[in-house]
Design goal:
mainly alpha, two-stranded antiparallel ribbon, 4 helices, 2 domains, 5% strand, single chain
């Protein structure tokens, strides 16, 4: 699985995220498990990979040191998969400002339709009395 993941990276630095929402409440046990896994992976796959604790900023710094030309993404599809056949599209967006404008416009639209409905109801009540 790691070899497949590595094929999608432009550098030799691979960022593997540990954890999941609400799954890691026993820190001592989890760090012990991660320590054991890191030791096992370095012992058995150390000729190809080097596993270590890191942070997102350390990863970004390591990648920034590489001479890589990064592609520009123009569309707004950044799918996220939490299970093999379950994808969330738009969850991470490259168009955050557009999403804000759409939210604000949606609020205005819904407010105006509510006001229009109230005005129509007021008119129909006044016509029947």
């Amino acid at each position: 699985m790691l070899t497949e993941r590595a094929e999608h990276y432009l550098t030799d630095d691979i960022f593997v995220v540990w954890g999941d929402d609400f799954q890691y409440i026993n820190a001592a046990q989890n760090y012990l498990n991660m320590d054991n896994m890191i030791a096992y992976m370095n012992e058995h796959y150390g000729d190809k990979y080097h596993f270590k604790y890191s942070t997102p900023s350390n990863y970004v710094d390591a990648v920034a040191k590489r001479d890589v030309t990064w592609p520009t993404k123009y569309d707004d599809m950044m799918p996220y998969s939490d299970t093999p056949d379950s994808y969330w599209t738009g969850y991470f967006s490259s168009r955050a400002n557009d999403k804000e404008y759409i939210r604000k416009a949606s609020h205005n639209f819904h407010a105006s339709t509510q006001l229009t409905s109230e005005k129509m109801l007021d008119q129909s009540v006044s016509q029947t009395t």
